[in-house]
Specification:
- This protein is an alpha+beta fold and 475 residues long.
- It has helices at 2-55, 62-77, 143-146, 240-249, 273-276, 374-377; strands spanning 96-99, 123-127, 137-139, 152-154, 158-163, 171-174, 182-184, 194-197, 200-201, 205-207, 220-223, 261-265, 417-423, 432-445, 455-461, 471-473.
- A 5-stranded mixed β-barrel has the order 6-11-12-14-13. A 4-stranded antiparallel sheet has the order 1-2-5-16, with helices on one face. The chain has a 3-stranded antiparallel sheet with strand order 7-8-9, with no helix packed on it.
- A hairpin with a 2-residue loop joins strand 8 and strand 9.
């Protein structure tokens, strides 16, 4: 009986020993695997943060690429991003690559100094497995006892970030000329000459819905906000329901246009003009929501008949020459033989001053005219509009006396500034065609839109690279 009990105790001891070894093995395995998972999580956070920091610098220039590399390295070196917030990591150049699309093949990702075209490198990839020295090597505590090959395990993470949108209105109009910068000769101004940018005059308001440099009928277009450049998209992409949210936000859903042609649909729907007025805090009936389409910080409408008005007259909203061919603003014809009626210019210099032409363009930008030049710049009958002595040093839009803050909603500065694609016209016939974008104009809404009237003052050209939307983590 005693021998049987001793044998049972021995068997139980052997079984317990085996079970203990197995349990300890599983614990060891769990600890080692936990270390690897923890390191991978840390690396993923590091890669995500570094990619986002780098993507914010990608503006289509070589300088932007170099800044992106420095930002990625700086993010990784931040003590809060690595090793449980205890130390930073050193990212090497080998782990930072750039491409023109987020899903580019391996051969499409390049180091900052080897990018074929900086203008197209709008996406960054941070891959810690390509880093030197290695960041993902984990020394195991138990697995190495089973096999020398398991004494260290290697893990890593990859993140891709970039910009997938442009702050560009899905409304396109014709460029009034083919030249990005040309002189507008006015004998009364000589030797000074006014600058024209694709035919537009800075500081002058235009009705963007009544322009056509090649005919007497207005031309305006929907820029497909969803399709890719170079491709005519499906009809649903340019339908009113699809375009409305992009008019509200002032964006299109692709990262760049470059030299590619774009899908445009004619005409721009008359029913969408109310969406522009969300910028004036007029959301009722606009189809826009105040969160995704906030008002401007200044919703004062110009023209303004208040005593503090900065001009000698309170002009009407600008109107195109109703019988003109080409169909242009009253401010465009260079001949002063028949000056327009006083007031017909619309508000002048509410956001931007007229500029002096110079070739080449001065390093600091084109020089502005003075308010004393108004009678020569804007002849009218019976008298030219003139700026009052109180015209502010900063544009009226930015001056307190000419501002009205929105109520009930938080405003966003310069929401009234529209970035409008300027097309090479005439655009081919048809409802849906491909068109070439000559440049992007900055137009300041001087007043809320109405049916057939979108009054906007030209404020110069803007580089496409500066209109990139917010950086996004893509994968």
């Amino acid at each position: 009986m005693a021998n049987r009990r001793q044998r049972q105790r021995g068997a139980m001891l052997i079984a317990f020993s085996i079970l203990l070894i197995v349990v300890l093995g599983f614990i060891g395995l769990a600890l080692d695997v936990g270390q690897v998972i923890g390191r991978k999580t840390e690396l993923q956070n590091l890669a995500d943060n570094a990619a986002m920091a780098a993507a914010a610098e990608l503006v289509g220039t070589p300088e932007g690429l170099l800044a992106a590399v420095e930002k990625a390295k700086g993010s990784a070196a931040d003590r809060s991003a690595w090793r449980r917030r205890m130390q930073g990591a050193i990212l090497s150049d080998a782990s930072i690559r750039f491409a023109s699309t987020p899903d580019a093949p391996a051969s499409g990702w390049h180091a900052a100094g080897a990018v074929p075209d900086a203008a197209t490198a709008l996406f960054v990839r941070v891959d810690t497995q390509a880093n030197t020295p290695s960041l993902g090597r984990v020394a195991t505590a138990f697995l190495g006892a089973w096999s020398p090959a398991l004494r260290t395990l290697d893990t890593g993470a990859r993140a891709v970030a970039g910009r997938t949108s442009l702050h560009l209105m899905p409304l396109a109009v014709c460029a009034l000329s083919a030249s990005a910068a040309s002189p507008r000769t006015n004998a009364a101004l000589l030797p000074a000459v006014e600058l024209l940018e694709y035919g537009f005059r800075r500081g002058v308001a235009y009705n963007l819905l009544k322009l056509n440099p090649h005919g007497a009928t207005a031309e305006h277009f929907v820029l497909n906000p969803l399709g890719q450049p170079g491709v005519v998209g499906v009809s649903q992409q340019v339908g009113e329901a699809s375009v409305l949210p992009f008019v509200c936000s002032g964006t299109v859903q692709y990262p760049r246009i470059g030299s590619a042609q774009v899908h445009v649909h004619r005409p721009f729907p008359a029913a969408l003009w109310t969406a522009f007025n969300a910028r004036f805090n007029q959301h009722a009936g606009s189809g826009c929501h105040a969160v995704t389409a906030p008002p401007d910080t200044n919703i004062r409408a110009y023209p303004n008949t208040a005593a503090s008005w900065w001009m000698t007259n309170a002009p009407d909203a600008p109107s195109a020459l109703s019988t003109g061919n080409p169909l242009l603003s009253v401010a465009d014809p260079e001949s002063n033989a028949t000056p327009p009626a006083v007031g017909s210019y619309g508000p002048l210099w509410s956001f931007s001053r007229a500029a002096r032409y110079s070739n080449p363009k001065p390093a600091g930008g084109y020089l502005p005219f003075a308010t004393s030049d108004w009678p020569k710049l804007y002849p009218a009958s019976p008298a030219a509009p003139a700026a009052k002595s109180g015209y502010p040093a900063t544009p009226p839009y930015q001056t307190l006396g000419f501002q009205t803050a929105p109520t009930g909603n938080t405003g966003v500065a310069q929401r009234r500034l529209l970035h409008i694609p300027l097309l090479a016209c005439p655009v081919p016939a048809g409802g849906d065609v491909l068109a070439q974008v000559r440049g992007i104009g900055r137009f300041f809404m001087t007043a809320p839109a109405s049916n057939g009237v979108l009054s906007a003052e030209f404020a110069g050209l803007v580089e496409e690279g500066t209109l990139a939307g917010p950086a996004e983590l893509l994968r």
